[in-house]
User: What shape does this take?
Amino acid sequence: MSNREAVVERRTTETDIAIRLNLDGTGESEIHTGVGFFDHMLTHVARHGLLDLVVKAKGDLHIDDHHTVEDVGIAIGGALRDALGDRSGIVRYGHAILPMDEALVLCALDISGRGMSVCELEYPVEKIGAFSTEMVPEFFRAVAHNAGITLHIRQMAGTNGHHIVEAAFKAFGRALAEAINKSERVTGIPSTKGVL
Assistant: This one.
């Protein structure tokens, strides 16, 4: 395994999750969470983030999708944290403004070591397939907190729930790809503090 890969397993009484992540991938993914639309969104993160990502999750979907989506976010955040290591040589910041038909979503992030998420999206529907739209900010909060990322996602336009959510996940993937990129011009850890 390269120094930019990670494997995370998370088992609770509510979920059983295994993640494999390669930051220097080509966008290949194998996603199985039991929530079809969520699988579709994670596939976009991998493709547009140029990450190789395997997610295998079994959760208490007979209750709802909350535990599965949140715990996958926790595990992906942990995998990002582990794969980034000391964060030496990375660009650190990334952003994307992504259109999807009538929807337009901005994502800006800082691999700061300080987990924080601000997600300002409006959903015209409560569910997309079996996926609860209220889980979008919960997922991003879980990823940001566990990866140590400061994350802002803001809707600039949009009326279709599917388009708004998909634009957010794609924008996150694009911004993440930019931030985790290694640059020959970045020497050491990109912080005046010397640590992230």
